[in-house]
Amino acid sequence: MEINRHHKLLIGLGVAAAILIIRLFTIQVLNPEYKENAANQSLVYETIYPSRGIIYDRNKKILVGNKVAYDILVTPREVTNFDTLALASVLNVDPEFIRSKMDEYKKNRSRIGYNSVVLLKLIPAETYLQFAEIQYKFRGFRGQARSIREYPINAGGNLLGYVSEVDENFIKNHPGEYKSGDYAGKTGIEAAREVDLKGEKGYHVYLRNSRNQIKSSYNDGALDKEAVPGQDIMTTIDAELQEYGQLLMQNKVGSVVAIEPGTGEILAMVSSPGIDVSMLADIGHHYNEIVTNPYRPMFNRAVQAPYPPGSVFKLVNGLIGLQEKVLVPSQTYPCNMGYSYTSTRKLGCHAHPSPLNLTQAIMMSCNGYFCYVFRSILENKKYGGTPEAFDVWRDYVTSFGFGDKLGSDVPAELGGTIPTSKYYSKIYGKNGWRFNTIISLSIGQGEIGVTPLQIANLCATIANRGYYYIPHIVKSSDGIKIDEKFNERHYTKVDTTEFKKVINGMYLAVNGGPESGGTAVGAAIEGLDLCGKTGTAQNPRGDNNSVFMCFAPKDDPKIAIAVYLENAGFGATWACPIASLMIEKYLTGDIREERKPVEQRMMETNLLQKVKTD
Amino acid sequence: MYNSVRRERGLKNSIDWKLVICYLLLVLFGFMNIYASIHATTDAPILSFDSRSGKQFVWILTSLVLAAMILFIFNPRLWEVISWPTYLLVILLLIAVIFLGVEVKGSRSWFEFGPIRFQPAEISKIATSMVLATVMSQSGFKLRNTKDFLITAAVIGLPMLIIVAEQETGSALVYLGYVFVLYREGLSGWLLTIIGLVIILFIFTLTGSPYISIIILLGLLSISYRAQNGTLKGWFISDLLVIVFLAFLPKICGLLGWAFFEKLKPMGILLTICGLTLPIYAFRAFRKKDNFLWAIIFAFILGLIVIASTNFVFNNILQDHQKKRIEVLLGLKDDPSGVGYNVHQAKIAIGSGGFFGKGYLNGTQTSFGFVPEQSTDFIFCTVGEEWGFIGCLFVILMYVWMIYRLIYDAERCREAFTRIYGYCVASLIFMHLFVNIGMTVGVMPVIGIPLPFMSYGGSSLWAFTILLFIFIALYKEEKKYF
Q: ipTM exceeding 0.85?
């Protein structure tokens, strides 16, 4: 027979069919791997959840660790009759709960199909072990290990943030990364470093026989994928100092920020009232309590609350005056219980010797002196007008990191406000305002808002004699690289040589001796050479805010700290001892015997009722 | 006497009932398996319109009505007449769907009218087949005539390109099946071989290595040269040994650790040998005026160019998304949606069926949702699991029988139109069969096209019903005048 083209095509058809048939014969009849499946077996995929990265403090102490908890899963289609009461008692739940859940699964059985659903979430390991012993009685039920957060020390609840189950919105906003039932960091470092901390999920594949017993690892685990644990994070926080700061600040409203000036690393950041780590561990149960608390514990005052800085701001004005050459340290100004700027109006001051020079003015925190200083800055002939001179002043102020976010890695940082000349021109008209109009700025009052972090940064800048590193809470460690910007020095517009001229006043304010008139003599610690500046900022809603910033030791600063207490009164009374105690704790590791009463008083005092919460 | 009897032939004898029965069996078997693939996860009764089996039942009934209309109402002459208008309309629809269609699984190829969705790509197969038959059956048409060839290529290529633009690469691939029609109608066998060769080399170079591609090229060319000269035995005695030796050269070098060869690289050795022998063969071809040998030499050089340019074309000319699609197609990379997972599950399902299967409605893999797309593109898994090798063999033999009948009937037609159309139908069914089943058993990459007559879905069932019954109607018409 002659071979035509259509015969060739038919031969091709035969060959193609033969390829398929031979292949099918191999898979279905010859290959034992698939044959083993023939007895009604199927594969079980068990998700292996990675352990989340651990968060350490600067001394490798664990701030946030992990422990194991279990989810109880159920595959409704596999459930046979079981003893509801026995299951309820071993799992520590109401039998009614299990009955209603099983009814619910029955209603949705077509949607669930042969999938597993979570019956109970995160039960403790002890409970699970009891269940595991009698698990064989409950067909279709099994446990799945999850790693949950554990907090060995009550330090930095607000900073650390919490981890919770992802909701639908979260999944939608992170396409492809999360599945329902996964957990993710929602606030604080947990959220900011989610990518590093979360790790990668894995899975194990098992063969299941017809009696729902897991028989063996499928294909010797060839398809298994191990979970990759999350990356550990090392923070700059000193856990002990942080915990100590929280104790001192309990029952008070305000914050403490401590920075290592030589690196910009944040040693402690307290916002009070804050969130206890015990709440973080079980945020679901505490959530209502937290959001209904009138003192708003979720609000991280240290980086979000804009406060008037009060007298600590005098240092900035003094430095600007020095740089602009409108102030020389030996210059004296008189002060007679204040500065009279019109015949009838006067910005008050307290009783102190007069006239005084710059060092004395800082030491005794004279209001009048700094009105003269601020006036000479704004009325500087060089700039041809108050608005122009004001803008020059503003440039100086912002170079200290005020008026805008510092750019730290603390989540949700806000920038505070420093007004512009435009702002005043809008209110008072183009030439409608002068020094007199904005005289409060001389002493850090008025239309100015700074965060405690910015005050602490100012303190670090002065401690460094003229520069700062952007404050940050995450250190570089294995696998974690922090942004280069945190390693750069940021200089202010004031020459570094001017700073020592104000530091002397800060030193004497603390160490001038009991009769010297220094405003912070109570903070003095022998041998530690503290330099500080008090502040008492007016608060229209009640008593004054108590402010204090200081650094130590004077010539080799290891710590710069800012304490801000709402409605507490004089800076010297509350903020000053707290800062001083923290410095002592950090630098010497302990509190001297003679200062124990102060420590006790600070810890026990409750100033909450002084703060209006409506 | 014979003539008068034939003229008297009634309906009973003029319709190819074998094709019709084959069709009905496949559709019924498909329906049973669709129900099997969903029965475990739904509580709806088998014929409820809420379930896929119920919907498929409606599609089947409507398809039978369509088939009856094509057989008994429409004049078979109609198809040739409306072929061009239909084709143009379909082209318009194919373009329109890109802009007006709804997006399903990343490709815009479906129109949606309320609860009904339909895919113009499905009808375009019918229209293209009709136009192809119209064009190629014109008197004086010769494929070797450049103008005719270009028209033919355009008729096939146009819808194919638009479908590629719709990101339905799988559906476009089916159009390659028309090559068989062209081959039957006189396309040079060499062209077919070269196209096949280029595809094979491209795939092997990407999945394997250029080295292996050159070995395969050498093997194919030497065997065809020996076959041409009638010395096929010699190939097995000498050439095969050389080729096997060359194939294992890298391994041998590695095992012996010859520093000299390591430095030279097996690829260098191979190219040197080729470079030295090629002039010898060229001289022999020149002396003996052996055109076939010349063709072999040029094919070899062409092959080397294809291999050398594969990576260049792949990395520099193709765009990223095209690259990705090819990579997924060839299994070089895992698809994010887990194409590899699907095939693995499909193989487990089919493999677990064994020789006799687990029994109807007793499958676990396919009914518990382990195999994705189980009632549409992966319907064959259900057959494999529940009916075993026997069931698979039955299905494949049914298709082979159907394709064989189509070719058999087509060859008996006097009208070129009917013959060519018949070949089109056979080629399309073959492509779907081979690609779909090949995909589920892992000999083809995952390309989402349905199994004709069996997969769930109205568009596909209607399209294949119309496609097939137009041919049966045409064939009936032929027989009337035999």
A: no
